[in-house]
Amino acid sequence: MRRIPFPVRTAIGTAIGTAAVLAAATLSTGLPATARPIAQPKNTGAQELGDPVYGVCRGTNPRCYHDWGNFDPAKGYKILVYSRTAGPRHANLGPALGAGMNPPLSDANVAQKALVKMGQDNGFGVDWTEDVSQLASPSTLLRYNAVVFMSTTRDTLDDAAQTSLRQYVRGGGGFVGIHNAFGTEYNWPWYEGLLGGANFYDHGRAQPGTVQTVDRKDVSTAGLPGRWNFSDEWYNLVPFPSEVRFLATVDEKTLTQGVAGNMNHPGHGSFHPVAWCQYYDGGRAWLTTLGHDAKAFTDDGTGFAGAKQFQSLVLNGIESAAGMKPFCR
């Protein structure tokens, strides 16, 4: 799926993005030593006085989480799936949904239906919507233990929804970003930080590759093999995620059609993350760039390699962000 270039970024974001591209290019083009990246960025934990770029407490230190008592486990667990698109729309989302909460889903709404079934099979409730007005009140969002952005695109939130989402996260809410959640709200720095200080830049051709589980102690990766086959678009990122716990990467050497995207990002060399987690501005955020193909959400692994591993990763990521399981440790 081809993308159009994203809008002009802020001065800070542009500076960070330029540095990330230079770092990634080193491994592919042999840039001078001044541009060489660290193999795996160090997790430094909570920024006690606030992150210098995003102005919030974020990182892997639980001290960045604010427990305001908004979520009572005795009431059970429930998530909200938000899949509104204001730009290119992934085929696995099917046609745009009607207004309101829980509009009818067709068989073509594969990803949304898969997440609903995931909740049914694992004992948590799932609501879904593409109506931005349903996100306009933090009191509405606080009914949910986690909000899942499922391949949203471009400016999918209005001012009221932006404010509501930020208040929800600050109140201890959980956020899960799947696939093109990284192609959303490009000009909102707070959201970029929520994604781990990262955004979608471009991608090469959708193709098979090998996912490497780089942290097998986290709840979301528990039980996954060290290496597993999967097919995706393998997003290139600018800026590069920082102050996060990296969970999985793709081995770029297994991408036979290359990693360079339509804007000629050279990839990320020997460390190309595809899943990570962090505490952010009081809440929990679990992220993955994976999830392009509809079969990844529905196949039993016999026809689409890695589907079962992907589904396990997403399920456990959602449950950890929602507080059902330990988060990011």
Unreliable residue runs: 1-49
How far the N terminus sits from the C terminus, by CA atoms, comes to 34 Å
Q: Mean pLDDT score, rounded?
A: 86
List the helices and strands in order: HEEHEHEHEHEEEEEEEHH
For the record, the CATH class is Alpha Beta
Biggest sheet details:
10 strands, mixed
Based on the structure given, which CATH architecture is correct? 3-Layer(aba) Sandwich
Number of helices: 7
- Looking at the structure, the CATH topology is Rossmann fold
| CATH homology-level superfamily | Class I glutamine amidotransferase (GATase) domain
Strand content: 15-25%
| Morphology call | globular
State Rg: 18 Å
Structural class: alpha/beta
Question: Would you count the extended β strands for me?
Answer: 12
Helix % is: 10-25%
How would you summarize this macromolecular structure in one to three sentences?
InterPro entries: Class_I_gatase-like, ThuA-like. With 329 residues, the protein is of the alpha/beta class.
Q: Could you walk me through the main structural features you see in this protein, from its secondary elements to its overall organization?
A:
- This protein has 329 residues and is an alpha/beta fold.
- It has a single domain (50-321), classed as Class I glutamine amidotransferase (GATase) domain (Rossmann fold).
- It is 22% helix and 19% strand.
- The chain contains 7 helices and 12 strands.
- The strands form 2 sheets. Strands 1, 2, 3, 4, 5, 7, 8, 10, 11 and 12 form a 10-stranded mixed β-sheet that branches.
- The longest helix has 19 residues, at 11-29.
- The protein is globular and about 50 Å long.
- The model is unreliable at 1-49 (pLDDT under 50).
- Keywords: Signal.
- This is ThuA domain-containing protein.
- Pfam families: ThuA.
